[in-house]
Amino acid sequence: MVKIRLRRMGSRHRPFYRVVVSDSRKVPSSRVIEELGHYDPRKDPVVIRLKTDRIDHWVSRGAQVTDTVRGLVRRATATAEF
Predict the structure, then answer these.
(1) pTM of the full predicted structure?
(2) Which domains does the chain have, with CATH numbers?
């Protein structure tokens, strides 16, 4: 099964995350199918960059979105409207 989830990057105590499509049976740090954006919670304001068209594409193909990524998509689309 394919999932859209976060992959932790960065150094110790300074994380940022990439939103990736990967096989759910593998660890998140393994090879990814496609990178769909990034999320940096340490910046002020928080940086969320997503390829929403590609997320829609993968969801239509049956990919499951994790709860955290679902929340990020909601936040990104809410701020993009204003």
Answers:
(1) 0.87
(2) 2-80 (3.30.1320.10)
